[in-house]
Fold this sequence. Notes:
By secondary structure, chain A is mostly helical.
Amino acid sequence: MSIATxxxxxxxxxxxxxxxxxxxxxxxxxxxxxxxxxxLLVALIWVRLDAVDVALTxxxxxxxxxxxxxxxxxxxxxxxxxxxxxxxxxxxxxxxxVLSVLIAAALAGAVWLLPEHAPTLAPRIVANAWATSLANxxxxxxxxxxxxxxxLEKVVLLLAIIGVWSLAPDTAWGGRPGPCHRADPxxxxxxxxxxxxxxxxxxxxYVFWTGADHPGGAFQGGAILASMWLLAIMAGLADTPATxxxxxxxxxxxxxxxxxxVGLGGLWFGSAFLAYPAAYAKPLILGIEVAMILTxxxxxxxxxxxxxxxxxx
Amino acid sequence: xxxxxxxxxxxxxxxxxxxxxSILRGPGDTDRMMAAQLIGTAGIAALLLLxxVTGVPAAVDVALTxxxxxxxxxxxxVKKGLSSLDTDGAGITEDK
Lengths: 313, 96
């Protein structure tokens, strides 16, 4: 057994251990912490499987923003957890366990029965990469060959933010999301919030820019930018913008709006909806992605900030 | 050289498994978050070595992302968690 195999077995065991523990642990907050660590390790597995694009997304969404979202939810639930001790009965637990085992068995069976040579479009994607002059096949699929899916995905993000905002009480509608954070301006938190964002913004833009030819892209870059914004908010250096602000709403619709406009332009000047003229494919895709990284950063940041709580005075 | 780097990855993974034990034991949430941070750091080291061993330069980008977001997660833990944990370090969080 080679050392690489030993390494893979150890990694898989550790990740499985985390999975079991996160499911089994009683306290929600501990489970959220376990989930953060789990996301970090799954990113390692994706790198080992040569899916670096997925690893970047996993690190940004699952280990970073998703974990923080869960930590916040667990912190909110903790007070109600102690008062309302409504533990599910034994029958409910048994049913849930049986259902979970069945789903796991079905998934394992599906993986077991996969055909030896999976049907794949990968060679055709590589063969047609010249059409967009982007070297990263994942970006090619997301922005050109299946651009429709990506556009609709951005619309879903918009719907998600509307869903979160609609949880606001009437008095706070259009107000600022989340609590007002205060921190000692000379403390270590404010120091870190001044030190880290410049580096983070450069890395975020780099991840977006390198996505044309190497693993990366607007979503991962946007997630990094969003986390830097939230860091400044949590340290009290910036406040969340009121959700009624016009510039904020313009940024939120910039990405899908430009995408839609370019798509309709393809219908008008070209052959089909979202058909880029070959000569302008790369500038058009990069332009859409610039608008999208802003939209994604603002949307993810506002999703984590939560529903408007403070009315504008 | 490759063998040595792979062995180093193995050693870091062993440390990572120890971090898992530490998360399992607890006892407090703060101890668990510290262990999660240790796992994040070990994960970054493993990624950098792995990228060198397998010739995937983009692994460095993943390591960068992990480094930024693991820090962010720990800040969120302090801000969201400590306000209701009764520790003496709560002086820095005065959310209203």
